[in-house]
Each structure stands twice: as structure tokens, then as C-alpha cells.
User: Which sequence fits this backbone?
């Protein structure tokens, strides 16, 4: 069995690239520059200017990361300039007329490498994950809003699978999550994997995507949904017809409508969800395949996952939640007393 999510150093691209960048640009390149350049005013001015530019650019990037999805290659620019600049300047300041050797140069570059590893990497990861978790929560809220708008028009929520051939609720809900054009391209008279509908499988839809996932497509380039609805007996979507508000007798704030399921590989248009009756009622449990989870609820957020409740609110649930409570939250009319959770 494989842990889910796997350890960060095995799966987060920025971690691997960040470590390599620090080793190369924070240690090896400053070491080479320090050994083969002279401590002249020209060098000092050049690297001081680059550091000033890099610091300003870095500050703007961090601010931008909190409002838009970042791209890894932009992170290398300020990190690289800062590491090269400070490493070289310190080396030039420290350099004496007696000309130190490479080993002594390493003693200058290595502390700078460690410094940037401590300062810059958390600065990269924390704003990014903060944005990503917020975006994931907004996606769930958008799903909830789409469900309510569908209910206003049809007097009930959509079923998990609608019609014959079956169409997933994610397809049914497209017009209610600002995807009207895509909905028009889907042929409801054909199966989801038919020749007519297969090209849509690679369509990336933000409402079905958690940005914390390291990958959102399978080996065939098909977009995988990050969200599913519960379909076990007694859950909100256990029937061939969608539920009504009056069916939720356990209380809308204590009934789960949709959950993150990033540990399952379900194509977004596939009429399939994770049935808690055939999965562990837990969060982020291990899986038989690396990058997948055997739990009904799974996410790449550290410490838990986010769920959408029937009142339209989204909530982060810890991985340590009592499975008995989680099971109660999955039912709509069992008369369970959930209490504080």
C-alpha cells in the first residue's frame, strides 16, 4: 500500500526543482564565480544591481501567487538571481589577496544555500498552497451554487447519473457552472465514451479541478475530476432521481453533498462516483496504486480534505476525523446525531 498523498519530496515538482536550483545556483555557480572572478567594483555593482532587481521581482511574484495560479518557471528567476548574487558578493567581500581555495569558497556558498533553502522554499510553497486551497473551496461552492440553481429550475437536485445512456451529474450541471457552450457539445443520446463525446474528455474544467493536484490528466490525456458525490445507500445521491430539500432530514449543515476525491481516477464526464460502500470511509487513506487513495475522501491538501455540505458551504475536514462521524455526515435521513465536528 502507498501513502496518500505521497511524501511531498516524491510528488511536488517545485520541491525537486527547488532543491536542484539551490544546489546548482546557490552552491555550484557562486562557487565557480567566486573562484574565477576578481573582487572589482564592477563585479560588486553588477551583483548588487541584480540582487535589488531580484528582491523587488520576488516580492511582486509572491503577491501575485496569492491571486492567480503560479507557474514554476517564473520562480526560478528571483531565486536564481538572489542565490547567485548574494553568494558571489559574500565571496568577494570575504576574498583576501592571498587567494583562498575552492574548499574555503564552499564554506561561503554553503551557508547561503542553507539560508535560501529555509527562506525561499516556504515562501514559494505557502502562498501557492494558500491560493490553491482557497480556489478548491471556491470550486466546491460553485458546485453547490450550481446544484441549487438546478434545483430551483427542476424542483430537485440532479441525480448522480441522468438518463439513458447515463450522463454524469458533472455533465448535467455544466450549464449551471458557466459551461453552457461545452454542454451544447455533449451528445446526451450517446454514451460518455462514444466517438461523439470522447473528444470532450480532455477538456479541462476549472469547476471540477483542484489546483493542488500535481497532475489533472491520466496517461491518455483525459481530464480527471477532483470532486465526486456520495452514492451509497442513504446518501444524498443514492437514487435514480435527484433528492429534494425536504429529503434532507438530518440537516443541510450535517449532510455532505460532494467531496474531494483526488485519489480516484475518474474522467470528469464518466458517469461514476466513489461509492463509500466500496471504499474506506476515511480521508487520505493509503492506496494500492501510488498516487491513488482507497478512501472515499482524498485530497492533496496537507492534513485533510474539503467537502461541500448541503447548505452550500464548503468546509475543510481533518484526516483525523472519527470515521463514525464521517459516515453520519454522508447520510441524509438516518436521524444521526453528529454533534460538533
Assistant:
Amino acid at each position: 500500500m502507498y501513502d496518500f498523498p505521497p511524501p511531498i519530496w516524491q510528488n511536488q515538482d517545485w520541491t525537486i526543482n527547488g532543491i536542484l536550483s539551490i544546489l546548482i545556483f546557490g552552491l555550484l555557480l557562486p562557487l565557480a564565480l567566486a573562484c574565477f572572478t576578481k573582487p572589482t567594483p564592477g563585479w560588486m555593482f553588477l551583483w548588487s544591481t541584480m540582487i535589488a532587481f531580484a528582491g523587488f521581482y520576488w516580492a511582486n511574484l509572491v503577491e501575485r501567487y496569492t491571486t492567480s495560479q503560479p507557474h514554476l518557471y517564473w520562480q526560478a528567476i528571483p531565486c536564481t538571481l538572489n542565490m547567485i548574487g548574494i553568494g558571489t558578493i559574500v565571496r568577494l567581500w570575504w576574498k583576501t589577496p592571498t587567494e583562498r581555495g575552492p574548499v574555503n569558497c564552499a564554506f561561503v556558498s554553503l551557508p547561503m544555500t542553507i539560508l535560501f533553502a529555509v527562506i525561499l522554499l516556504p515562501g514559494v510553497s505557502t502562498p501557492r498552497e494558500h491560493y490553491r486551497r482557497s480556489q478548491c473551496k471556491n470550486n466546491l461552492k460553485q458546485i453547490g451554487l450550481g446544484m441549487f440553481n438546478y434545483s430551483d429550475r427542476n424542483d430537485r437536485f440532479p441525480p448522480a447519473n441522468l438518463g439513458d445512456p447515463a450522463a454524469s451529474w458533472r455533465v448535467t450541471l455544466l450549464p449551471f457552472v458557466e459551461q453552457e457552450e461545452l454542454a451544447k457539445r455533449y451528445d446526451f443520446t450517446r454514451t460518455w465514451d462514444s466517438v461523439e463525446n470522447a473528444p470532450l474528455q480532455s477538456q479541462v474544467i476549472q469547476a471540477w479541478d483542484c489546483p493542488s493536484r500535481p497532475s489533472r490528466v491520466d496517461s491518455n490525456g483525459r481530464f480527471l475530476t477532483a470532486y465526486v458525490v456520495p452514492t451509497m445507500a442513504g446518501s444524498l445521491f443514492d437514487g435514480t432521481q435527484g433528492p429534494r430539500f425536504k429529503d434532507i432530514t438530518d440537516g443541510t449543515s450535517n449532510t455532505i453533498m460532494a467531496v474531494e476525491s483526488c485519489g480516484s481516477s475518474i474522467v470528469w464526464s464518466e458517469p461514476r462516483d466513489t461509492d463509500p460502500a466500496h471504499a474506506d470511509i476515511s480521508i487520505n487513506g493509503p492506496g494500492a496504486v501510488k498516487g491513488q487513495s482507497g478512501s472515499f475522501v482524498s485530497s492533496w491538501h496537507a492534513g485533510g480534505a474539503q467537502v461541500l455540505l448541503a447548505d452550500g458551504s464548503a468546509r475543510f475536514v481533518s484526516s483525523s476525523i472519527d470515521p463514525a462521524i464521517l459516515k453520519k455526515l454522508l447520510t441524509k435521513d438516518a436521524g444521526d446525531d453528529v454533534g460538533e465536528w
User: Anything to note?
Assistant: The longest strand covers residues 304-309. Residues 8-127 form one domain.
